[in-house]
Description:
This protein is an alpha/beta fold. The chain has helices at residues 75-84, 103-113, 138-143, 159-172, 196-201, 209-225, 237-248, 259-263, 266-272, 285-297, 312-315, 332-341, 348-362; strands at 2-5, 8-11, 16-19, 21-24, 30-34, 44-47, 52-55, 57-62, 87-92, 119-122, 149-150, 176-178, 229-231, 253-257, 302-303, 377-388, 405-415, 418-419.
Amino acid sequence: MLLLKNGTILDPYTDTDEKLDILIGDDGLIHRIAPDIVPVAGAQVLDVTGCTISPGLVDVHVHFRDPGQTEKEDIFTGTAAAIAGGYTTVVCMANTKPVCDNLQTLQYVQDKAAQVPIHVLQACAITKELKGKELTDFETLHAAGAPGFTDDGINLTSGKLCYEAMRKAKQMGVPLSFHEEDPAYVLSPGVNYGSEAAKKFGVFGAMRASEEEMIARDIELALLTGARVAFQHISSGRSVALIREGKARGADIHAEATPHHLTMTEEDVLEFGVNARMNPPLRTEADRQALIAGLVDGTIDMIATDHAPHTAEQKNRPFAQAMSGITGLETAFSVLNSVLVRTGRLTPMQLMRAMSQNPAQFYGLTGKEIREGNRAELMIADWDAEVTYTEYKSKSSNTPFTGQLLAGKVIGVVCGTYCSVEEA
């Protein structure tokens, strides 16, 4: 048995913010929650004084590059990075090689995922080979365990096909997630159109209209079909306004924001170069503030890292040739605590809701709250501890947050019978 002593339970599901002990059995279930639990004979006791115990973080948007690009990441190293960041559930994107649009590839990921101690779920592609021309077999793939569908990385440009996908998803009760960047307005990816960084690196950049146009269209389609839709890694203040209005009109729409879009702007690209190159790009301070406001008022439901590992060789190229995307699983909690919680923009409970409860509920994942009888899926964190990231569990380190002094350290996770917690 495992006894977590002297921690403060911070659970957005139950709005609990109270100092309580948690006793976890050899079956991985929570046996008791109470003040001052007396240790039973043979129990492992971990004193987590000064730390919170929260539901494990849930990331609905990661790239583990497995199969096909395991020089960047694989299921095992991606899982290690997730655990280091406080995550007990992640959802992998479908843009693997081969694309996860078939049972064989899905089963490959699931077989590997069965060997790791946290939940690694694999979303499948909306369209075959991510080509945007023909829908995949939603029924077969969902029956085999795909929690939802996404062509992340590629815009679903055909409105007709997008409508068909939403109609099918509504019939089945499964969610869709969309990467919203109309390529017609992405003159060169990875940096905001017309920014000083774009000028510095000699590229045009990606217009915010590329995102806003697609979101506006897909809100109308979501209203028409009733489909449950998430807009991935939004970057524009206008996008936030469109989503807020769409929700008010009754659309079953949701939105992700990344730690980097919530804490950085196009100005940071001048300093960090290719390590701040991502799709959609970092935009202006006004956009960032609108994203934060949307997170505070619930327009943005979820914080997702879009963990996107690349090799050093793939990143360390001239800006126009470098791969887009940054890693994020290991740094997310510290970055967001430092920039949003410690500055008073979010409460710890609001952050946990966006990083744990809401992502789980989008995919219909249940049993995640800290409750007697539930499986233990917990993150233990010291919100005041200082931390500087210089080494990573991920195979890749393409992040602008390396070397920055941050506040908030993940002490470890408990997931069933697995425990990575160190003494606080």
